[in-house]
Design goal:
This protein has 139 residues and is α+β, with helices and mostly antiparallel strands. 23% of the residues lie in helices and 31% in strands. It is built from 3 helices and 5 strands. It has a 5-stranded antiparallel β-sheet, with helices on one face. Strand 4 and strand 5 (128-137) form a beta hairpin. The longest helix has 15 residues, at 60-74. The radius of gyration is 17 Å and the shape is elongated. It starts with 17 loop residues before the first strand and ends with a strand. It comes from Paraburkholderia silvatlantica. This is Acyl dehydratase. Residues 22-122 form the MaoC-like domain. InterPro entries: HotDog_dom_sf (IPR029069), MaoC-like_dom (IPR002539).
């Protein structure tokens, strides 16, 4: 990964899009094991139906990890200074999630040259699932 230079990054620059494979039960089970979040709404069909859902659905934090991957594909993890999101929709089985972002501001924070980046994830139907922003340090 090339380290981005503050002078080469411009307001309006888009981050390289990240597209994930369709959400499936295996993905949810693996994330439950990796994260320790075994809430049955994400892995137990009967529980999900009793809760009024048609099926299980993705963990919100799984969606946030995908946005995190978008960011760390763009800059090294050590350059991430802040990362905030709002969960705006449920990610159902079969959804193909696309993560994207764009630079909205260049600024100095605590003596460090940074970029503020708006980030989002959407389904193949154009539904926003997560929206937020990150602050990344640039050299």
């Amino acid at each position: 990964m090339d380290t981005l230079d503050f002078d080469s990054v411009q307001v309006g620059d888009a981050l390289p899009e990240l597209t994930l494979p369709p959400v499936d039960r295996r993905m949810l089970a693996l994330f439950a094991g990796a994260s320790g979040d075994h809430h049955p709404i994400h892995i137990d069909l009967d529980f999900a139906r009793r809760a009024g859902m048609s099926d299980v659905f993705a963990h919100g934090m799984l969606g946030m990890t995908w946005i995190g991957r978008l960011l760390t594909n763009w800059v090294p993890q050590s350059h991430l200074r802040r990362f905030d999101v709002r969960f705006q929709g449920i990610t159902h089985l079969g959804h193909v999630i696309r993560c994207g972002g764009r630079v909205v501001e260049k600024l100095e924070v605590n003596g460090e040259r940074c970029a503020r980046v708006e980030v989002h994830s959407t389904s193949q139907y154009g539904q926003t699932k997560i929206a937020g922003e990150a602050l990344v340090a640039l050299s």
